[in-house]
Specification:
Blueprint (H helix, E strand, L loop, with lengths): L13 H16 L3 H8 L5 H34 L4 H17 L4 H8 L1 H22 L4 H29 L4 H30 L3 H26 L9 H13 L2 H28 L8 H17 L13 H21 L4 H29 L5 H8 L1 H15 L5 H35 L1
Helix pairs in contact: 1-12, 3-7, 3-8, 3-9, 4-7, 4-16, 5-6, 5-15, 6-7, 6-9, 7-15, 8-9, 8-12, 8-14, 11-14, 11-15, 11-16, 11-17, 12-14, 13-14, 13-17
C-alpha cells in the first residue's frame, strides 16, 4: 500500500488582506481635517484640481505597467526556460543600464522637459510589448534594456513633472505634501492591481494566453500616450546647458546637505531593490512551500497603510523635525533587515518583519520627497534624483555579479542593505543637527 504525503503550503490568513484594505480605507477617511480638505476640496483652483486628477490617473497607469514586469517578468523568464543564472544575468544587465545610462537621464529631463521623458516611458513600454508580440522569446535581453531605462524614468520623472507643473499653478506646500503620499499610496495599489490584471489575462493557461499580457500592456501604453500628448502643453525648456551647470554646481555640488540627502536616497533605493530581489528567495529558503501570491499584496498593503500615516505629521502640530522622523524610520527598517539577515527560519516572523519594513517605507518616501522640495530648486530636481541613484545601482550590480559567482550569500546582501539604512539614519541626524544650528544662528541675529 502506497503512502500519500500531503504538501503543507504556508499562506497568510486571507483575512489579513481584507484587514489591510479596511485599515487603508479607514485611515483615508479619518485623515486630519486640513489634509481631507486639501485632497477633496472642490472649491480650490479648477485648473489645479483638473491637473491632479489627470496626473494621478496617468501615474496609476504607469505604476500598473511597472508592476506587470515586476510581478510577471521573472516568472516569464523561467517559463521560457531561462535558468537561475540566466535570470540573474538579465537582471544584472538591467542594473548596468540603469547605472551607465539611467543615472544621467534626469539631467536630460531637466533640460528637455519632464513631460517628454514621461512620454518616453510609455513609448518604451509600448515598444517592448509590440516587440514581444512580433519576435517572441528572442528579445528578452533587448527588452530588459528598455524596461530598465523605463524604470529609471519612473523613479524620478513623474514626481519631477508633478512638482514643476504644480509650481506653475501656484500650489500650496500642503497640497504638494498630499500629492506625495497619494503617489506612494497609488503606486502600491496599482502594483496590486497589476497582479490581479496579470492573473486575469493569463487565466491559468500560460501557453494559450501569454500574449494577452503583452496586448494588455500595449493597450495601457497607447492610452497613456494619448493622455500625455493631448492632456498637457509643456512650455519648452529655454535654459542653456551652461546655466544649468552653474545652477547644479551652486545647489548640489557646493551644498553638503544635498550630499547627505542624496546618500540617504541612494541607501533607500538600494535597500528597496535588495528587498524585492530577495524577499521571495528568503521566504522559500530550505525548500519551504509558500503561497507568495498572497504575501505580495500584504507587503504592498503595509506600504499603503504607512503612506496614509504621512499626513498626520504635517496637518497636526509637529513634535519633531522631518529629519528626525526619517532618522527613526531608517533605524527601524535597518533593524528589520538585520534580523532577516541574521536568522530567517521562522516564516511568520519573517513576513512580519517584511511588512514592518514596507510600512516604514510607505512613510519614508513622502518624507524624502518633502525634503527634496525643501533643499532643491525645481529646475535641477530630476538630475539630482537620477544621479543620487548611481551609487545604489553600482552597489547592486557589483553584488549581483558576486552572487552570480556564488561568492556571497543572500544574507550578506541583506546585511549591506541594513548597514546602508543605518548610514542613512546618520545622514538624517547630521541634517537635523545642521538645521538646528542654522535656526539658532538666525535667532541670535
Amino acid at each position: 500500500m502506497g503512502v500519500v504525503l500531503e504538501s503543507d503550503i504556508w499562506e497568510p490568513n486571507r483575512s489579513i488582506c481584507i484587514l489591510f484594505f479596511i485599515c487603508c480605507v479607514v485611515s483615508i477617511f479619518c485623515l486630519p481635517a486640513k489634509s481631507s480638505a486639501n485632497v477633496l476640496d472642490h472649491a480650490s483652483s479648477a485648473s489645479l484640481l483638473r491637473f491632479q486628477r489627470k496626473f494621478l490617473f496617468l501615474f496609476a497607469i504607469s505604476s500598473v505597467l511597472e508592476g506587470l514586469w515586476a510581478v510577471f517578468g521573472e516568472y516569464e523568464l523561467a517559463y521560457y526556460g531561462f535558468s537561475k543564472d540566466q535570470v540573474l544575468n538579465v537582471i544584472s544587465v538591467g542594473f548596468a543600464v540603469s547605472l551607465f545610462i539611467g543615472s544621467f537621464i534626469g539631467v536630460l529631463s531637466d533640460l528637455l522637459g519632464h513631460k517628454k521623458l514621461c512620454l518616453l516611458f510609455f513609448l518604451q513600454h509600448l515598444l517592448v510589448s509590440l516587440w514581444k508580440l512580433v519576435f517572441g522569446t528572442s528579445t528578452f535581453w533587448l527588452t530588459s534594456i528598455f524596461l530598465s531605462l523605463a524604470s529609471s524614468i519612473f523613479s524620478f520623472g513623474f514626481e519631477s513633472w508633478m512638482v514643476v507643473e504644480q509650481d506653475k499653478l501656484g500650489q500650496r506646500q500642503e497640497v504638494l505634501n498630499d500629492m506625495f503620499w497619494m503617489m506612494t499610496f497609488l503606486e502600491s495599489a496599482s502594483f496590486i492591481g497589476s497582479q490581479a490584471l496579470a492573473n486575469y489575462l493569463i487565466d491559468d493557461n500560460v501557453v494559450r494566453n501569454i500574449k494577452s499580457l503583452w496586448i494588455g500592456a500595449a493597450v495601457l501604453a497607447v492610452l497613456a500616450v494619448g493622455l500625455v500628448t493631448r492632456g498637457w502643453q509643456e512650455a519648452p525648456q529655454t535654459a542653456p546647458l551652461k546655466d544649468y551647470r552653474v545652477s547644479f554646481h551652486r545647489h548640489v555640488i557646493s551644498d553638503k546637505r544635498i550630499w547627505l540627502l542624496s546618500w540617504a536616497q541612494s541607501c533607500v533605493h538600494f535597500s528597496v531593490a535588495a528587498f524585492w530581489l530577495l524577499w521571495a528567495p528568503s521566504i522559500v529558503a530550505d525548500g519551504r512551500e509558500v503561497s507568495l501570491g498572497l504575501i505580495y499584496p500584504c507587503l504592498l498593503g503595509s506600504k499603503m497603510l504607512g503612506s496614509t500615516g504621512f499626513p498626520w505629521f504635517f496637518h497636526v502640530p509637529l513634535v519633531l523635525r522631518t529629519e528626525e522622523y526619517l532618522m527613526y524610520a531608517f533605524t527601524i527598517m535597518g533593524f528589520a533587515l538585520s534580523i532577516v539577515a541574521y536568522d530567517y527560519q521562522e516564516i511568520e516572523l519573517l513576513v512580519a518583519l517584511f511588512c514592518l519594513f514596507q510600512t516604514c517605507l510607505g512613510m519614508v518616501l513622502p518624507f524624502l520627497a518633502r525634503l527634496r522640495t525643501t533643499y532643491l530648486p525645481n529646475d535641477i530636481r530630476g538630475g539630482m534624483m537620477s544621479l543620487s541613484l548611481m551609487p545604489a545601482n553600482a552597489a547592486i550590480l557589483f553584488l549581483l555579479v558576486l552572487r552570480g559567482h556564488h561568492y556571497i550569500a543572500n544574507s550578506t546582501i541583506t546585511s549591506v542593505a541594513a548597514f546602508g539604512l543605518f548610514s542613512a539614519a546618520g545622514c538624517m541626524y547630521s541634517l537635523k543637527k545642521w538645521g538646528k544650528q542654522l535656526q539658532q544662528s538666525r535667532r541670535n541675529l
